[in-house]
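Work Package 3 (structural annotation) set out to generate three-dimensional models for the target panel prioritized at the project kickoff. During this period the team completed the workflow that converts sequence records into discrete structure tokens, so that structures can be stored uniformly alongside our sequence database. As a representative example, we reproduce one entry of 173 residues exactly as it appears in the project archive.
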Amino acid sequence: MRFTILAMTATMTLCAGCGGAAKRRSATSAAVSDPGPCRPALIHHGPPPAWTAAAWSDSSPGFTVPYALASGDAAGAFFFAHPIRAGHPNNPSNKILWIVRFPRNGNPLDITARFGADPSLVVKASWPADSSPGEIYPSSLDLPRAGCWALTLAWGPHRAAIDVQVSALVHSG
């Protein structure tokens, strides 16, 4: 996995509300030019969409984890640790299974995350298309600050967007 923090100049409104990137970004091959305010995607707790079925094992019927859908239902983020926590948490880590609706065709999943409160804070990560079953990318996504993050996903010619809420890492002891 490639993990880089870059300083970039951009303008973005503070994270506010609830709703998700789907209302303001589309799942097209075009770049997102004006992403608008950061709005965390709705977290679902029921059965996943039918188009994700190839990713789930027949040996675990009824298994569900919290998930959110990216713009245009082009991808799903399945959270094995929810909420995502800032920094580099352990036990559990920020494990996310990304399931994409459109074929990977050997392309990696590239994610660009922009912090809603300071869009100059950018994190980039990439995962290879080397897992199965289905169109999946297992990942562990660590973002340095609590708050709303706007994520742009790209695999080959496909694009999707999703905003996620990151909680503060609480140290116990």
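The radius of gyration is 15 Å.
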